Model the fold of this input.
Amino acid sequence: MQYFCCSSNFTILAMTKFWLSGLVFLMHLSIYAKVDEVVHCKDMALMKWEPTMSVLTQNKAIVSSNSIVIPLKRAGKLILIEATVDSVKGNLILDTGSMKLVLNSIYFRDGRKIAGSVSGGVTGKVQTVSKNKIRRIQMADIVYENIDADIVDLGHLESVRNVKILGFYGLSMLKDFEIVIDLQANVLELHKTDNNGKRLNIESIRPSIDLSLPVYNNDGILLIQAKIGKSSYTFCLDTGAESNVLCSSLPDRALNTISVTRRSSLRGAGSNMVEVFHGIMNDFSVGKHRITGMQTMVTSLKAMSNAYGIEIDGMLGCDFFEQGIVFLDLKNKQMGIQFYKNVKE
Amino acid sequence: MKRDYHIYVMSLLLLVANGLWAQTKPEQSGRIESGKLVLTVDADWNTEQRASFSRLYDVDTTLLKKIFAREFKFIHDSAGWEVKEIRSGKFEITRKLISENESSQLSRTEILSGTYLPPPPPPAIAATDEVYGINTFNKFQSFVYKDGRACFIFKGNSKTGKVVLSGSFNNWSTAEQPMQLTDSGWVACINLSPGKYYYKFIVDGRWMHDPENKTREKDGHRGWNSVAFCYNYSFVLEGFQNAKSVVVAGSFNGWKNREIKMNKTRKGWERHLYLREGTHAYKFIVDGNWITDPKNAVLRKDDHGNENSFMAIGDTMYFILNGFKNAKQVNVAGSFNEWQNSELKMMPTDEGWILPYVLAAGNYEYKFIADGKWMTDPDNPNTSGSGDFENSILVVKPNHVFTLKGFEKAKEVLVTGTFNNWNTHGMRMSSQNGVWLLPAYLKPGRYSYKFVVDGQWIIDPDNPYYEENQFGTDNSVLWIE
Done:
């Protein structure tokens, strides 16, 4: 061979760089974990809890009509909305698990830094959280003005998905609407509702749904009860995750139902490597509807429970939202699902 | 009843046999039981299956060998796995799940990124686009391309009066290209260069593929992307009017002999299509007989001695080698012709040797071969690799120039990044008036990169976009839209 071919060592080096840069990204984001008290996640009823973030009054969307249909873009399983944030064009990740707007430091670096928020990185370098005041966000027919955002490095995410990601767009920014997420059609519908949760747009009628269940909502975190086997557990709805996640301290009868297909490690705070499992959920049901074949990761959710101030047994990510059209009526604290037929291709 | 009984026994035996002797698939060998991870390991696995198991569950292949050698104590002492042989050649290895403690805590965002599927490989620097293509429609032709202008037409209705054209040409923007209502339907016309494009309509906020376009590809989300090719070439064969069928085949379609059928015209046969820029070998197949193009004088023999017609689309460039006047023959070979060393013969001139050639936009590597001796281009300072593996770099129609100012006295400056898998040999930049330059053709996407100035790694001082890397330093970030 007369031409130069890079050796596999270089490929491995590059891959390692990818993953390590991902871990650095994780370190940056760990600053969000607000540690209160240690809560063990196990089979239990919901605890009473206090909100950990104040309601952002400036997160009021300015819209011109009672119903809006926003086309969604996808990167992997992630859900993206095209947006212009202070003249920077790109995409926001629709994130039902975010409590507020989080922007990527690559494009919004000039924030005022808050000293004291520290996370130890791989290199021991100290990271600080920045805040930034955003003048205007335009997303399809929705406009936000003068909005506070946290600034973190999301470079890893961009490089994993090869798409320009401006940040996370939390559902708390849409709490005035009935939200419909349809990942088969890749659309987000927003309907203004009256105090009873009834759509103001009389032409838009809610279709019949297969399942309705209560949602526990607290300005950002949405929790539902679902079953693994015969036992009921608390799950948060989190489209920031591609697959589902189950807490590793769930009882045997729940973990037994998972086929483990992969084992890997993630770098946690203080550069500890944490073992995680990936697998398939064989016996999950919500209401009377059984769903098989969803991907899940198994790891400890303790730190997350601490940050949320409530014990959670699992997270339902994009894999769950791909099962059907999801209706979220936060005023009535109800979630509806119209399941897709023939979910698998 | 007796027969039923036999069937029952047979089924039972089959079930038992299946259970006992069925091979466990590596990707299905894990389960969690009584607070332990249990993995089933099969001695019958071939090398590929063993490697797959090792990769999926992070169990060393040497450990697997120890299992099959039944060195259970060694495995337990060195790696902490309990091993049990559940039947001959089938083992279960078991380890306690790591108990929850402070060190095993992950924050939400750490968990989120753990759920992301592994990243696809970064876009390769020398990646090439679709080589050729033809459009097919239902009754209505919903896409028209003429003189560099592409018009997309949607015949359906919109309730809100909002129809948007979104596609690979505008980065799948959901807002940038609204369609206008005309007598022929909703229309958007945009300037496009020849090529292959994916698109969809967004009608009242909802995505839909073009119902009239038969060429479509799965979009990965249970829907379809419509495909449009902007044509740039016509194959023409005059005469042969009594032939029943004429097909054109070439290097661009892997010489498939039934795929691209030509249409009968008054003078002979013709086929419009999209062909990627560059040089292509081809032949016509008239009623099963392969012939070269009678109107084309450019004929070359391949390595097997077959003669083919050659055509080219795009601007002609010249490979020039000065000197070597005493050489009997000089050839050029490169990544563009799979390094075939005898195909591209250069012609002697007064100053040396020359070969006119046409290449599509992209990054290529090449060498000259003077009387059998391989050499880099002495007049081209941009090279990659080193020693015997050093090749000259050729960039056709670059869309980005890596530029580094302020290092006039540096002896060697390289650029390396995700576009070349962080190859530590990098790509050698050339100095012009104290500014280091390397033109490159990069596919749309995100790249991170660094310069290496006399062995020292630095970020691009003129690029405001950068991110931290695992070494605690930074990488520059570049988007090619």
Summary: Residues 8-29 of chain A form the longest helix (22 residues).
